[in-house]
Write a structure and sequence with these properties.
This protein is of the alpha/beta class and about 240 residues long. The protein has helices at about 45-55, 70-75, 90-95, 130-140, 150-160, 170-175, 205-220, 220-230, and strands spanning about 20-25, 30, 35, 45, 60-65, 85, 100, 110-115, 125-130, 145, 165-170, 180-190, 195-200. The strands form four sheets. It has a five-stranded mixed β-sheet with strand order 10-9-11-8-12, sandwiched between helices. Strands 5-1-6 form a three-stranded parallel β-sheet. Strands 2-3-4 form a three-stranded antiparallel β-sheet, covered by helices on one side. The radius of gyration is 17 Å and the shape is globular.
């Protein structure tokens, strides 16, 4: 899903996880099908099921914490939770600040959606701030308009404030199917897949989740979960 956070490494704490009693999983809770809040106000979606299963396999007690996307890495570094599992794409820029597990999805397509066909190289395009999509739009010569949340990027295009929106295709598919929006231009593959992010001091905890991801890949349960939530990027 998202990427390109150029946060300040000065926020990183030297105190690591140190195997506390409860592992706090940080997510956004606003990016279906990866993560969202259900009618009961609980974290739901692909990453909720994935995170719970990984904690079970790693024999860890876990709890979920939600955080706005634009401060999700700073609050990891500040110690407000122990890992990020929030549709976060693995990129070189982020690796300067945090360490990632292996990807639990392969790179999946990003796509453009609009009310009518437009030239995406010169159009006004909305994207969520601090994402691989916003970085890509900025690199194309199009006019980028950033919003804090994915819902605001959709509202901007449906209201005619921008010409098109760019986001993960997995996120856009149900929106396009239920609205007057249509996919335009070709899909774009960005990033190195989606992984869990950790403070650079927490290699022991990261290794536990990496090993659990390995077991889910090996027994086919990760691909089954991707299928269930209709997410591309199977192994």
């Amino acid at each position: 899903m998202k990427s390109l956070f150029l946060g300040t490494a000065a926020l990183a704490l030297t105190a690591g996880f140190a195997m506390a009693d409860t592992v706090r999983l940080g997510t956004e809770g606003a990016y279906p099908p990866y993560n969202f809040l259900n009618d009961a106000g609980e974290v739901d979606g692909f990453e909720r099921e994935l995170g719970d299963e990984l904690c079970k396999r790693a024999e860890l007690d876990c709890e979920w914490v939600t955080n706005d996307w634009d401060s999700i890495i700073p609050n990891l570094l500040s110690g407000n939770y122990d890992t990020i599992i929030a549709g976060m794409s693995i990129t070189d820029e982020r690796k300067e600040v945090v360490n990632f597990t292996q990807g639990y999805t392969r790179p999946s397509p990003s796509a453009y959606a609009a009310l009518a066909d437009v030239d995406v190289s010169s159009a006004v395009i909305s994207a969520q701030a601090s994402t691989i999509q916003s970085a890509h739009v900025a690199s194309t010569g199009a006019t980028l308009v950033e919003f804090p949340t994915p819902d605001e990027t959709i509202a901007a295009v449906t209201a005619g404030e921008v010409d098109a929106v760019m986001a993960d295709k997995d996120f856009l598919i149900p929106i396009v199917e239920g609205s007057d929006l249509q996919f335009i231009a070709e899909d774009v593959f960005l990033g190195d897949g989606i992984g869990m992010a950790f403070r650079q001091s927490d290699d022991e905890l990261r290794a536990k989740f990496d090993a659990a991801i390995d077991t889910m890949k090996a027994d086919g349960s990760l691909n089954a979960l991707l299928d269930k939530w209709e997410i591309e990027g199977k192994f």
